[in-house]
Amino acid sequence: METNTSVCLPLLVMADKQKYPTGFGQHGVALLTVLFILVLLTVLSVYLIEDEYMAIRRVSNLRDYEQMYHMMTGSEQWAVKVLQRDMQGNTNDHLLEAWHNLLPETQINEGRMQAEVVDLQGRFNLNNLRSREDPWYALFQRLLRVLEIDEALADAAIDWIDADFDVSGPRGAEDPDYLSLTPPYRSANQAFGSTGELIWVAGFDDAVINKLEPFIAALPTVDAKININTAPIALLRALSPTILGEPAAEALAQGRGEEGYQDAGEFLGAAELAGQGDQIGPLIDVSSQFFEVRSRAEFGRLRGRLFSLLQKVGSTQQVRVIHRRRGLP
Ligand SMILES: [Ca+2]
Ligand SMILES: [Ca+2]
């Protein structure tokens, strides 16, 4: 009988049977089983706790993200209201108006937010570039010259957006130039979607783009005029076919006063621009249609940025959001 029972015991107990009193083998098996179950339960508990923790983190991150995104779209809507009110109050746009310096860094409960509005018509619209005969082409060349960038790069920018495959000028570039690169790609042959797209255009490296970035925009229109009330000095200098000296451009900026130029005639009447009205007049305006709201928010562990393109619609006296882009914090 004893032999038959022993057959059912684990080998370990069988081997030690001679050393221990009868009955120890059964107790040992029970102990090992209990230990095994304990270990199993511990591993299971750790796994469940970790899973629960991850679920809580996920929900918390989602909540923080929602909160952060609402803060950014909130400042965007605030900009829409301010610009709408501005439209109803006056007909020009200048840097001393409420839309400029919209929202300084502000603490809101667990979060922090900040927003600024940039007048995109205080910049040169890359999508104005259509042909080498166009006055916008000459203006862009002058802007490059003022910024000490090779003015011939304007040719490659034109080729990037024009629909044909004819190379414009010595620094122009079309498909054959891009297809020979590694990796190969084609020219867009359509309007710039963003100024960042310049990195694909021949001759525009990081150094050139960083220098140029504060002075350019990629607007969903052609013939966007330069707002003389918001344009920086370098762009005011480039407006003149002879390129104005820095003191002359600074005098023109001073002429904005506290209310800005009320019309182009007032600007063109300045002594610095004598005799240049016919060339400069078609390129300028005193108000703008396109603005960018740059919102930054922080909530919990998350940080984000939102860039919203706004357009004033004169016929309805409304401001609408036409594009949103999320950016790095
Ligand atoms: Ca205004
Ligand atoms: Ca082309």
Distance between the termini: 79 Å
Low confidence ranges: 1-13
Task: Tell me what the CATH architecture of the domain at 125-222 is.
Answer: Orthogonal Bundle
Q: How many strand units?
A: 9
Largest sheet features: 5 strands, antiparallel
Morphology:
elongated
**Radius of gyration, whole Å:** 34 Å
Q: What is the N-to-C order of secondary-structure elements (H for helix, E for strand)?
A: HHHEEEHHHHEEHHHHEEEE
**Strand neighbour order, sheet with most strands:** 1-2-7-8-9
Hetero groups:
calcium ion
Number of helices: 11
The CATH class of the domain at 125-222 is identified as: Mainly Alpha
β-strand percent reads 15-25%
Describe this structure in words.
The structure is a single chain. The protein has 329 residues and is α/β, with parallel strands linked by helices. Among the domains are: 52 residues; 98 residues, Orthogonal Bundle (Ribonucleotide Reductase Protein R1, domain 1). The protein has 11 helices and 9 strands. The strands form 3 sheets. A 5-stranded antiparallel β-sheet has the order 1-2-7-8-9, covered by helices on one side. It has a two-stranded parallel sheet with strand order 3-4. Strand 1 and strand 2 form a beta hairpin. Helix 4 crosses helix 8 and helix 8 crosses helix 9. The longest helix is centred in the N-terminal third of the chain and has 66 residues. The site of one calcium ion has 7 residues, from loops.
